[in-house]
Amino acid sequence: MKKNNIAIAVFLSITFITLIFIIYNASMPVKPVVSITRDEKLMIKKPDSLIEYKNEDNSFIVDNDKTIYLSMDILSEKLYVKTHFDVEDNVAIITTLDKVIRFYGNTDEVKINNREANHIKPMIIKDGQPFIPIDKIKEELNIESKIIEGTNNIVIKSYLDNKLIGETSRNNVMLKKDKNIWAEIAGKLNKGDKIEIINQDNGWVRILTNEGYEGFIKEKYIKNIQEIAGAKPKVSKSIWQPEKGKILLAWESVYSKNPDTKKIKDMSGLNVISPTWIRLISPEGRLKHNIGKDYIDWAKKRGYKIWALFSNSFDPKLTDKFLNSSLARERVINDLLKLMKANDIDGINIDFENVYLKNKELLVQFIRELTPVFHDNNLVVSIDVTVIGGSDNWSRFLDRKALGEIVDYMAVMTYDEHWASSPVSGSVASLPWVERSIERILEEVPAEKLLLGVPFYTRIWIETPSNTKPNKMDVKSKAVSMNVVRNILNRNDIIKLWDKEAGQYYAVYIEDNKIHKIWVEDTKSIKLKTDLVKKYNLAGVAAWRRGFEIQEIWDVIDKNIN
């Protein structure tokens, strides 16, 4: 009996102490969550986690005006922001689909789409790292930020992230600093208070309140849980399409002077012409051009859109130095824009070839910087790409997926299957090869942005027995127009056979004791290739080049794709 009385007394004592503890905590005023050291703390809310940084982590800065500065690593790695920092030029760049924001460390300037943005504070350089003031640009970056009142803590969220929300089901719900009932209380929630769920563990839920306080509450005190999808990121859409039908583009090869337009016949269905007018000539971004006013007047009268081609002169060393300078890239963008506006040109066709693989990301960065500025001025941006292949300088340097997310159109150069110096003779663009190439690129780039490249030329392959390699042939080639091939095929001694697999005629003949081979490009082969535009619903056709075609080819393409 005595032992039972002792047990009852102990039980009542524990119960009494517990009740006192609960009553005391319930009567405490609501207080925000603060770090033990009261140092500033950055909290980045992700769909199922809360990533925390202290001020010594070199991730953020808060100035005396409560402006929040984030490191570029935080912006890019945690908040999906496209960033670039040029250490040499001391320029930090942020790009979105329609904005390029530049922070100049040497002058404290800020520009948006090449216009001064005096309402935005300059960046801060700390320990050699740039910190970007986000307050005036956070909507552009799809982020929201909040400094929690009465604390030194900052909460950052991305609008692009999904979130799990709910509300409290009763009054006097204690917000704990840890997931146990004895943990210190961080605040108190009442019935119906809105919360955001971070994660759940063994009956406890880590939450974030609307005011920005974080902590743990029991799972049973949450109701009306629902998942809210994040905002969909903006998707690049072409700013121009033909009024009807598909795009039919032809490149105009201009090396020294513009062609005599009086000699150019009608080109049925053509709606875009791309003269090879502009090229890069210095690492600092100087340009050389031979834009022709008479040619522009002629094209405008015919109703053609003009996309001036801009090339890197196919010089990898020059391109490397140019792409590595943010100031050079900016100069080129500004100078190109001036040329477009001064000459009433409708867009640009970027043709960068023979580029080092190490410049892959920098080429994408250049296009990210150029496109918002051009779109701001209603100028179309297109880029030429080779088929996906194994060559570093001619194929692998192209990030087709990233480029396709930026530009209006991408012209796929589905020709040169067998190139000028190929060790074996073969087709310039056999039908199966062209189709496979398009199918591979369609895995990375939407069909509505792709232009199918077609050749208006072919190669005559000349084979002779090798003097150094037994049972081998030495191979040379020369590119010729459709008319040249037609004249050759009119000779009586030519054997011409239909190559069903290649989708074109194959011809062979002997001349000067040498074997000559031609895989013919004509109306029939071009018809089969342009069938792919309909089959895959591509944006249109890009032909290399005007002047190499036979006249009837225009009607064939126009009727086939339109």
TrEMBL record:
<feature type="transmembrane region" description="Helical">
    <location>
        <begin position="7"/>
        <end position="26"/>
    </location>
</feature>
<dbReference type="InterPro" id="IPR036582">
    <property type="entry name" value="Mao_N_sf"/>
</dbReference>
<dbReference type="InterPro" id="IPR029070">
    <property type="entry name" value="Chitinase_insertion_sf"/>
</dbReference>
<dbReference type="InterPro" id="IPR012854">
    <property type="entry name" value="Cu_amine_oxidase-like_N"/>
</dbReference>
<dbReference type="Pfam" id="PF08239">
    <property type="entry name" value="SH3_3"/>
</dbReference>
<dbReference type="GO" id="GO:0005975">
    <property type="term" value="P:carbohydrate metabolic process"/>
</dbReference>
<dbReference type="InterPro" id="IPR011583">
    <property type="entry name" value="Chitinase_II/V-like_cat"/>
</dbReference>
<dbReference type="InterPro" id="IPR017853">
    <property type="entry name" value="GH"/>
</dbReference>
<keyword id="KW-0472">Membrane</keyword>
<dbReference type="InterPro" id="IPR001223">
    <property type="entry name" value="Glyco_hydro18_cat"/>
</dbReference>
<dbReference type="Pfam" id="PF00704">
    <property type="entry name" value="Glyco_hydro_18"/>
</dbReference>
<keyword id="KW-0812">Transmembrane</keyword>
<dbReference type="Pfam" id="PF07833">
    <property type="entry name" value="Cu_amine_oxidN1"/>
</dbReference>
<feature type="domain" description="GH18">
    <location>
        <begin position="245"/>
        <end position="562"/>
    </location>
</feature>
<keyword id="KW-1133">Transmembrane helix</keyword>
<protein>
    <submittedName>
        <fullName>Spore germination protein YaaH</fullName>
    </submittedName>
</protein>
<dbReference type="InterPro" id="IPR003646">
    <property type="entry name" value="SH3-like_bac-type"/>
</dbReference>
<feature type="domain" description="SH3b">
    <location>
        <begin position="160"/>
        <end position="226"/>
    </location>
</feature>
<dbReference type="GO" id="GO:0008061">
    <property type="term" value="F:chitin binding"/>
</dbReference>
